[in-house]
Amino acid sequence: MSDPTTVPFPVPVPVNLPMPMPVPIPLPARSAVALLLALLLPACSASPPSTADLPLLPDTPVATLGGQPLRLGSLRGKVVLLDFWATWCVPCIDALPAYAELRDRHVSRGFEVVAVSVDQSVLDARTFIERRPQPYPVAYDEKGRLAAQLGVATLPSSFLIDQKGRIRHRYEGFDPKKLPELEARIEALLSE
Known about the structure:
This protein is α+β, with helices and mostly antiparallel strands. Helices cover 32% and strands 20% of the residues. The strands form 2 sheets. It has a 7-stranded mixed sheet. A two-stranded antiparallel sheet has the order 1-7. The longest helix has 18 residues. The protein starts with 6 loop residues before the first strand and ends with a helix.
């Protein structure tokens, strides 16, 4: 069953291939795997990586739908929600006004939203935004470079970035029930 909160990106071409039969794992191998997991899992509970080890947002230039250049590095010092969307993606369209409300509540504290369209045509994105303007920058990833650099595979995909330009959280899909969690993370980053 597909997730109604996401849309694959780029849209896959369906292929009807036979599904392989599951191969049962023999009992001795299962026991060995269980032992290995028991030995390795305590190491996984070590402290989380330092924020200094988190990936930085690439400073890939994009253009706003108005044609002005936008360097993502110019947003350092702000907490940023970078949202990849397309006009044909229903969950994306639902997310845009919700993110506008989040921005309105936190912009005075240094929060910004940047929506990046991955539509095939900049005209589609422009026409859409002319009909449904947003209070934050809307850019166009003409060749999909930024989306590729960040490994965007579904739409919408969003990244929450701290004031130093580090990617702190990644979200795939849009579920309005998860907005309180997102807002709490925004507030925590604004307080750092």
